[in-house]
Amino acid sequence: MKRFLAFLLALISVLGMFAACGDEKEPAANNNTPITPIQPEEEVRTYDTAVQEAVVAVAEAYYARRTFIQYEDNPLIKSGAQLRADRHKYSPEDATKQFTTYSNCATFTFDVYKEALDLDIVAWTCSRLQAAKDMHVLTVDKKLAEEEKADMVQKIKDVLQPGDIVSYLKDNWGHAMLYIGYEEVIHCSSNGGVGGSYNMASNTEVIDPAGGIYKMSWNEFFPGGKHSLVDMDQFCIVRPTVRHPDAAPNEKTINRVANLQNIYVEKTSSHAIGMTAMPGDEVTFTFSLKNSRKTDAVIDIVEKVPTNSTYVSGADTVDGDNLKWSVTIPGNGGKVDVTYTVKVNADAKTGDTIVGDAKVGGVEVRCQPVYIGGSLLPFEQEKIYNAATTISSNATGTALAKEIYAAAGFGCNIGTEAEIISSIYKTTTRAAGHFELNTTSKYMNMLVPTMYGGYLVYTNTGLYDGNRTKAPMLSQLMAGDIVVCKEGSTYNTYLFIGQNKAMSLNKGSVGVLDVVKTRDALFSTIGHDQFVVIRPSMAY
């Protein structure tokens, strides 16, 4: 009997196990016990110094915006390469889906050090980095023989530290990269990350749609790699802290390291693409945050009510002119958008801007200013768009622009492309090495401020704008703007019609809108002998 009872108890136990398996497939309705998935551990990278950590954090922040940073060469001014006209104008967060910035390989390394440590290091060309001997920790001024390469590979591996700049020259061409430790490199490059494509001999400007910020393994430095240092004519490893031993992270970078590691942040505006705001209009700003950490992140946002506007809605807390939010962003790629709205003040004047002063996690985050007036009103811009999309004409160039303006019901008192260029520029021959603005031109009151350029532009008193970077102009381009370009003896004319579309006026339009460029593509491809942006509405 005892054996039978034992057998019965065992049988009941086994049946209970099967029943438990069934329950596991379909939990009871009242089972509210949460199941916590096992998360992979967060990768923690450590650095020997706070300076190294700061430099790497800023380089990674630029890398996070890689699709909005394009490659361009430094402007050549007279006898040689000099610093970019607007040195370190843009922080990482300035590059957004509404605004593309431009850099090049050496200038990128300068920007990282300036942003992270407030240091002015050598930001000229790669040859200038080669000449900065007081910052070198390894210099090779010759092409290595085969028997020397293995030893040099080991020396490179031994000496490299996070934050070091690696620069090389070969066949009248060079490149610079930033080593970030853990056998990784970040660099600004064209050609899909292979390297720069700037032609030093012919001063060929490079704005490569495939350019940007890239990350790669340090194995590319060694034999067989795309950037094999031991196969170059000369190379050096530059450590700016040798020249600046007292360098330390600035407050912005301390906050970046503490609060924004693996957090992507950008600020955009409802009026940033080809639009102006008028008194009484509402403008909405958006902070977009993405969390690449494994765990949730809590980020504080503080924003002052922008100039020339009055707060309407959207903030968690309003304290005088200060708007505040505390945002929880889920881990593993979680995204959160934070928006708020203001109204343009009634006394705002044409030419004024709405500019906010925001800090996310203690780091300044900006978007492009919203311009007030100074152009066609939004409904008038829409008329230009509608006229351009429906007009049927055999006219070309500025003649077609005038017909579109007339169809929209507006005046457009401009002449031919040749007249506009010859009137605005005193010197029109590239061989002369520079161009000079004619400040008495009848088109000066239609010439959009800063929206002109060329090989070089001078005034009577000297260099006016030697910076060929076109990116800052993109946010200022508005519907109705006419872009006139001269390359050699050839003229090309475009009309920006809004909705991120530029219409070619070169072939005429017979009932078909010839939209050949987006705003970005237009400024990436226009000729650089001379170009001007004319806004006829500024003359009325």
Description of the molecule:
The protein contains 11 helices and 32 strands. It has 540 residues and is α+β, with helices and mostly antiparallel strands. The chain has 3 domains: 202 residues, endopeptidase fold (from Nostoc punctiforme) (Alpha-Beta Complex), CATH 3.90.1720.10; 112 residues, Immunoglobulins (Immunoglobulin-like, Sandwich); 162 residues, no CATH class. The strands form 9 sheets. The protein has a 6-stranded antiparallel β-sheet. A 6-stranded antiparallel β-sheet has the order 24-32-27-28-29-31. Strands 15-16-13-19-20 form a 5-stranded antiparallel β-sheet. A hairpin with a 2-residue loop joins strand 7 and strand 8. Helix 2 crosses helix 6. The radius of gyration is 29 Å and the shape is globular. The protein starts with a helix and ends in a 6-residue tail after the last strand.
